[in-house]
Design goal:
Elements (H helix, E strand, L loop, with lengths): L1 H17 L15 E2 L2 H13 L11 E3 H12 L3 H4 L13 H15 L3 E4 L4 H11 L10 H12 L4 H17 L1 H4 L3 H13 L11 H11 L7 H12 L19 H18 L7 E8 L3 E8 L4 H8 L3 H7 L2 E6 L3
Parallel strand pairs: 1-3, 5-6
Antiparallel strand pairs: 2-3, 4-5
Helix pairs in contact: 1-5, 2-5, 3-5, 8-10, 8-13, 10-12, 10-13, 11-12, 12-13, 13-14, 13-15
């Protein structure tokens, strides 16, 4: 045990010496420390296993210096064979992870960063982006988040016209009900992306496709999103058809305010989905009237929307729970 502690002190001293003159690298408002490479990803996986983290992805994971220190203490008192039993630690990295963790921890101490944003990408992806994506005018990816969402949708062979109609109705409801929900541009963006992705699970199976869609969102490559945002989009997608998914499974990445946020945005998406249930685009415009006890949504249609209105009026329970008011869908303009 004494030898292991002495070795750890030697590692810390060596790392401290290496970074002693690294004065230019300092934490400041607006700056984020990003880590990439096998050791960083390995530390993230160990931390996730120790914390029983609900998402199985390291890209965009936030690794704290305290968490790295805890991993250092965990590995320092174990020999190689014992380290191989640590959850999340790959056997071929049992020898190098401790040293890498000490170096990263010292770097964060020296630069006064308390958090490290983990990248699942490496130098190869960086070279590709730099040489093939950004060297165009205008940039090929002006909005990486949007590109990522549509990439997943197209890979899943989504129905573009239907998804866009659902997104249009969702955002119309969101905008006209802003005085009630109080959400902003961030929630509006997530709602739109959820509308685009809500049916991608149909390619797995129609029955329970809302669950399949949520799974694809959680396990797809949505770049530029935090884990909290991915979980929020997945919940909206999961709730678009029926029921209300229990948020306890991913509470580790959500905040206390997200329960109501999920309910309200899911309710808007569900109303929009049933107004477009026939996938005919018959519903063209919505007008919302807010009264103290009743919200009325008037539907302007280009054909017979009787079935859409009838079906939507049968699916209002989530909306009434989320907003605390009754809602009625009618035909014609208010």
């Amino acid at each position: 045990m004494l030898d292991k502690k002495r070795d750890l002190r030697a590692l810390r001293t060596a790392a401290s010496t290496v970074f002693a003159d690294l004065e230019w690298m300092q934490a400041a408002p607006g700056l984020t420390l990003v880590g990439l490479g096998g050791t960083v990803r390995q530390l993230a996986r160990i931390d996730q296993k120790l914390k029983l983290y609900p998402l199985d992805k390291v890209h965009a994971y936030i690794l704290t210096r305290d968490a790295i220190e805890a991993i250092i203490e965990l590995l320092a008192v174990r020999n190689r064979r014992e380290r191989e039993q640590v959850p999340g630690l790959k056997g071929d990295r049992a020898d190098v992870t401790l040293a890498g963790a000490v170096i990263i921890s010292q770097l964060m101490t020296q630069s006064r960063f308390t958090n490290l944003l983990v990248s699942g990408h490496g130098l190869r992806e960086g070279l590709f982006y730099a040489n093939f994506l950004n060297d165009t005018n205008p940039p090929l990816l002006p909005n990486p988040r949007e590109f990522s969402v549509y990439s997943l949708a197209r890979t899943s062979q989504y129905e573009e016209e239907h998804a866009e109609n659902v997104a249009r109705h969702s955002l119309s409801l969101f905008d006209q009900l802003a005085a009630l929900h109080g959400h902003g541009t961030w929630e509006r963006e997530l709602l739109r992306y959820a509308a685009i992705l809500h049916d991608i699970g149909v390619q797995v199976g129609y029955y329970d496709h809302h669950k399949h869609s949520a799974y694809l969102v959680l396990n797809g490559s949505l770049l530029g999103f935090s884990h909290r945002e991915i979980a929020l989009i997945a919940y909206l997608v999961r709730n678009h058809r029926k029921g209300l998914a229990d948020i306890d499974e991913y509470k580790a990445v959500l905040t206390s305010s997200d329960a109501l946020r999920i309910e309200q945005l899911s309710a808007l998406l569900r109303i929009a989905e049933y107004l477009e249930r026939s996938k005919s685009g018959v519903v063209r415009r919505l007008r919302v009237h807010i009264a103290p006890e009743l919200i009325t949504v008037a539907v302007e249609a280009v054909g017979d929307a009787t079935v859409e209105i009838w079906d939507t009026n049968r699916r209002t329970s989530l909306f009434e729970r989320a907003f605390g008011r009754s809602i009625r869908i009618v035909e014609g303009m208010l």
